[in-house]
Every structure is written in C-alpha cells, then in structure tokens.
Amino acid sequence: MKRRDLIIIGAGPAGLSAAIEAAQYGLDVVVYDENALPGGQLFKQIHKFFGSKEHRARERGFRIGQQLLEEAGRAGVEVVLGAQVIGLYDGLIVQVVRGDRIERVRANAVVIATGASENMVPFPGWTLPGVIGAGAAQTMANLHGVRPGNDLLMVGCGNVGVVVAYQMLQAGCRVQAMIDASRAIGGYGVHAAKVARTGVPFFLGHTILQAEGDGKVESATIAQVDERWQPVPGTEKTFAVDTICLAVGLTPATQLSRMAGCTMVNLPGLGGLVPATAQNGATSVPGLYVAGDAGGIEEASSAMIRGRLAGLAAARRQGFADSQAAESRGQELHESLDRLRGGPFGERIRAAEELMHKALEKEAACQTA
Amino acid sequence: MNRLAEHPVLGTYERGRRVTFTFDGEPMEGFEGEPIAAALRAAGVLTHRYTAKNKEPRGVFCAIGRCTDCVMVVNGKPNVRTCVEPLCEGMAIRTQHGLGNGAVAEKEERP
User: Fold this and answer.
1) What angle do the packed helices A61-74 and A13-24 form, to 10 degrees?
2) CB contact under 8 A, B66 and A253
3) pTM of this prediction?
4) C-alpha closest to that of A25 among A70, A76, A60
5) Is the CB of residue A63 less than 8 Å away from at least one CB of chain B?
6) Which of A129, A135, A150 sits opposite B58 (nearest CB)?
7) Integer Cα distance of A345 and A159 in angstroms
8) Where is the chain membrane-spanning (chain B) (predicted)?
9) Does some domain include residue B111?
10) Complex ipTM, two decimals?
11) Structurally, how many domains does chain B consist of?
C-alpha cells in the first residue's frame, strides 16, 4: 500500500489551505477531490468577502480560489481530481475511486475537508423539477453560465438567500419575491439592501405552502405564519415562478468522520451532527483532522484558517514543525480565527464551540473515572 | 435561451468547443466539458428521470453531485450524476426510469 505523510479529502478553501500550510513544512501532501475542477464552492462566490484585510475582505471568492490554487502549486501539493473517497478505515487508510479503479492509500495524517450539502424544506410539490438549492442556482449561473430559470422565488433570507438572490439578478433572472419564516433578515444588511433597492419584495414572517405545476414548477404559494409558525388562513399569495430556490441552511458532510468512528456531537449552531474537535481540528481519532464546513457550518474565510490550523497540526504531529516559528504560527492562526468570529455573526459559532468543549471535557472525565 | 452571453462581474464565459449529443434520441448542442445538466438546462430540459414507484419527475436539485436527484442513463450506464459529469461529443443521454437498466420495472411487475 502506498503511504503519504498527509492526505486531504476535498480541494475547497479548507482543504487547499491545509495542504499549503502542511507542505510548507516539508510534508508530502496529496489532495483528493471528486470534482473535475478544484476550489470547492469558491469559484461560484463572485461577491466580495467580509472581515478585515487579513481575512481577504473585499476580494471576490473566485479570485481567492485562483490564489489558493497557485499557492498550492508553488508549495508542491499534488491535487488529484476525479478522485472520490468512499472509505476511511482506522482513520488513516483512505479508499479512493479513480475512474473504474479503487485504490487504498495509507496516510500518517488525514484532513477531512468535504464541506457541506444544502438543506431542503418539504412542502407539497417540493420534488418538482424547478425546486433547487440556492447554491445550485449559483453553480448553474456563475460557474456554468446557464440561468437556472427566469422567474425565481427565494426561500430564506439568510446570507446565502440574499447573496444568491442578488447574483441571480446579475445573471439576468427576475426575483419575484424573497420570503423567510423569521421576522428579521438573517443575512448581511449590505447584501439584503442591494436586493431590496432593485425593488424585489421581502415577505418576512412567511412560509412556502406549496409549489404548483404540471411536471415542473409553474407557480408557488406562500402565506404568513403566526407566532407558532402556523400558516394564517386568508394570507396566501401566489407567484408565477418557474424556479424556487431553497436557502434554508447547510448540513456538514459527515459521512467520512462517522465512518472513521469520530466522537460526534449534535450542535444546531454548527449545522447539526459534527465531529467533536479541538480548535485545531483534531478529532477523537488520532491523526484524523476535520476542517471547514465538514466540521461545522461557517464561512469560507474561517474555513481557510481552520484548514491552515489542521495542516499545521498534522505537520506538528509528525515532528515536521517543532520550531519556535511553527509554535507562534499556530498562535497567530488561533488569534486570527478568534478575531473573525469576534463580531455578532460569530456569536452562534462561539456558543456552539463552547458546548463542544464541554462535551469533550465530560467525555474525558468519563473515560478517566 | 438560458445561456448568459456576458456577466457584469465575470465578463464572458470560457466555454469548451461546441459538441453535439442526443437526449432520448433527439440531437442537441452543448459545450464540451460543461456538466451534462448545464447543457440540458440550456436546451430547456428540466426532467432528468422518473421515480421508481410513483413515476414522478425529478430534475437538478443540488448541482454539485451530492443529492443524486439528477441521475440519468449516459451511454447506456444508469445513475450518472449529470450535474458533475462533463459533456462529451456524441454522448447518448437518456431519461432514467426508476433505477435504470429496467431493474425496477421487472421488480414492480411481480404481483
């Protein structure tokens, strides 16, 4: 069996960052990604990022993706595309499908950076062609240059909802309405304002009742909800739309961390079931790390720092980075992550992290008892 | 036509060469290397498959290869995720019924 110092699963912002960081300390690093192109979801992020300059604010996601790929190339990272990891045994034996072949490779350390998948909400008609994830709409328009539809309803006014709605307008679609069951817009005000200024109506405190159409979406009916989230009769409104975009959250891709036997915790603030990790991404399985959305839903900016932390930790574990410089590098990354999570949008993450650390302490106490 | 000629942020799209393929035997055009699903959407095709039991139509949902709702029979091979499978010259793409290959149809015919 072939052996590598570090195998990273997923060539998105977290995985590439982990690879670049680790390769700098001399590790032999390979990144597997099942897609035909690397970069994860970065190349469809055509908006400018937030935060401060250290977090690449005011740069557009796809440019950051290009920079990461160039950096990975310079660092000597091997990125293998069309490589689907289907198994993780003893945490460190990676089973990968390439074309019609399956191979197994042993690693001294593994970073799972498999990202997340979009949530859905079930309602009558939700399986009709034309009901798609908001991220799917973004992929079709921004990556492939194909409009997902002409007249859209956006369900969810969090960051994904407002950002994608604006991008659909940029792509030449008509956004007929934005709805959210909550009475407040959850997404960044600046993105929501850009959508609102174009005249798109926002229906807060509303839910989708059903999608109608013969074999495909032809219209959608929404209604106001009361304080117990129940539709209020008589408040129904129907929109002629061919596409319903669901922006109702993301779920971490935990197939591999569960398969590897990582201790899991259910933290709604991080998107549901996630592997319990230390801040450097170390899971309960020795040598196995998780970075980015696969370890809890955040943003690409934090995924890049979490990737770097995991890459550094994987290097240190193998004795590659035991210098004073590496020590202070770790400190620097931790501080950078804390600053990124410092604002009001980081509150959810900070609260969830605290719960995770409590769960880990409790488990450690049980094991020693 | 659902293809964007130009984008206010991205400018023009880099596309592969123009290729022909068939959808349920009908000739269509797309660009080499783009996902099959993108070429089909541009050609106005929304239904990729019908479910095994209730014969309900399904199309693209996640567009990144996670949900498997968009699978079709490609060059005779069923269950191909069309949202991530690159389009090639001359591909024969067919609507999938059930699990493809007639496996489900046979099962259902049993009393």
Assistant:
1) 30
2) yes
3) 0.90
4) A76
5) no
6) A129
7) 11
8) none
9) no
10) 0.90
11) 1
